Amino acid sequence: MTGTASRPTLEAVAERAGVSRATVSRVVNGGDGVREPLAERVRRAVEELGYVPNQAARSLVTRRHDAVAVVIAEPETRVFADPFFALQLRGISKELTAHDSQLVLLLTEGRDDHARVGRYLAGGHVDGALVFSLHLDDPLPGLIHGAGVPTVFGGRPGWGEGPRGGVPAVYVDCDNRGGAREAVRHLVGLGRSRIAHITGALDQTSAVDRLDGFRDVMADAGPDLVVEGDFTPAGGERAMRQLLERCPDVDAVFAANDLTAAGALRVLRGHGRRVPDDVAVIGFDDMLAVAEQTDPPLTTVRQDIEGMGRLMARLLLRRIDRGVAEPGPEDSSGGVVLPTALVRRASA
Q1: pLDDT averaged over the chain?
Q2: Which helix (H) or strand (E) holds 284?
Q3: How many CA atoms lie within 13 A of 151 on its CB side?
């Protein structure tokens, strides 16, 4: 038989520190009203005994779970294959860890998962939610609003600046439209005249904004120069093949993200097109694991993906600290939009 040591109790800490159980409880749960010499004795006793507070009991006192749900409205096959999500999760995790809060990852494969996520959030398991990669017909915002938890969205919500169905929005995004404009202007400055765009999935606002940025510069571009992709390498390959069939004289491509651009580059190489001599290519995101590994290295629009994740978490933690689910005057009513920058490499 093997024995296991019993966990130190609150009473044991109180006895070691020579204080009451209530005093220990206030100190370990972050309460006020304990003189510093007593609080220091309690902290020393906690360390000596290796006491770990019971989270369930602590939550009853603080009404906090020290956990945040990260809801990604994509299937796991997409999330774990796309480095964008890894970068954003890394930023979120760093910020939550710095505030001693746990990350709970929730993915959605289909409508049943949407209902599951809504039930989980309504069940009081987390203090708030970070939600990104939403699609325009996604029911998640309404379900999350009904759960009554503070929420920050990654990306501009598809229902505009005001509420849709009573759903308010605090969000963090990059300047998708401005970044796209800068990319296309760079291609024009290179003397390219048949500039095409491979979009992202057009049920997501980032793809729509980048398409709008393309059209801001290429207002006269015909519909044959725009092909819808889906933010994946395979989507970029399919779209590039379509472009070459429709417009064999295309001399530049602005792709909606780096993965799409990587797929386009493979097709161009397979068709004997030299990059950038015959066709210049620009992506979006500046994910180094992609942009520096393509052949040739990819000119792209940089957004601070990890920094956006950290900022999302920071905004949410502030709302949680205020103890409110609905956005207030302290929140940015139109969201936070971070700048982008063109990073020039060999592809354009």
Answers
A1: 86
A2: strand 280-285
A3: 25
